[in-house]
Amino acid sequence: PMVYQDRLYLYTSHDEDVTKDNFYTMNDWHLYSTVDMVNWTDHGVPASLKTFSWSTDNAWAPQAIPRDGKIYLYVPINNNTGAKIGVAVADNPIGPFKDPVGKEIAQSGSMAIDPTVFIDDDGQAYLFWGNGNLRMVRLNSNMISTTGSVTSNIAMSGFTEGPWFYKRGSIYYLVYAGSGEKLSYATASAPTGPWTSK
Predict the structure, then answer these.
(1) pTM exceeding 0.90
(2) What are the angstrom distances between the C-alpha of 138 and each of 56, 113, 131, 162?
(3) One pLDDT digit (tens) per residue for the chain, 198 residues
(4) Which of 163, 187, 160 is nearest to 63 (CA)?
(5) I want to staple 58 with a disulfide (CB 3.0 to 4.6 A). Which of 5, 79, 82, 161 is the partner?
(6) Could you give the CA distance from residue 29 to residue 32 in angstroms, rounded to a whole number?
(7) How many CA atoms lie within 13 A of 116 on its CB side?
């Protein structure tokens, strides 16, 4: 979900009706929006695997975030051939989204999935992702390139997948699917941790 100009936008992955190789088959992302959480507008497909010339398969769970009048859509793709995180950019929430980089912006291990992005009060943006192993890297202000090295093996009790990063007051939160697919979370006083699992 992304709130932008008093409207909630929901970017979703999309399971095809027919599977390929007896596995999840996802070729694109869909977009819906609402102002009242009851009535929804279907905006169709804002991006697909075709958006990324280097993609091969699996358009999995995305996250969109606005910055400086543009919308950045972070997506995990190529999970069968070495997972990678890509980014597409648009001038508005419904697109069209385009790949400004032409390659992944993050990759580490075979399960580079479920990106979540957060921009702190000082303007520094962070990208977290992972399956079984939580990873993090800082984003440059252009939101399409990274700075510094990837931090791997972030201590998070029972981390499985699906991280969601946010801040409330002075506390940073990561909500995630924990062991046994239960909903878990951790808190920190800084976006880089250390994290205390709850």
Answers:
(1) yes
(2) 26, 17, 19, 18
(3) 999 999 999 999 999 998 888 888 999 999 999 999 999 999 999 999 999 999 988 899 999 999 999 999 999 998 666 789 999 999 999 999 999 999 999 886 667 899 999 999 999 999 999 988 899 999 999 999 999 999 988 988 899 999 999 999 999 999 999 988 799 999 999 999 999 998
(4) 163
(5) 79
(6) 10
(7) 19
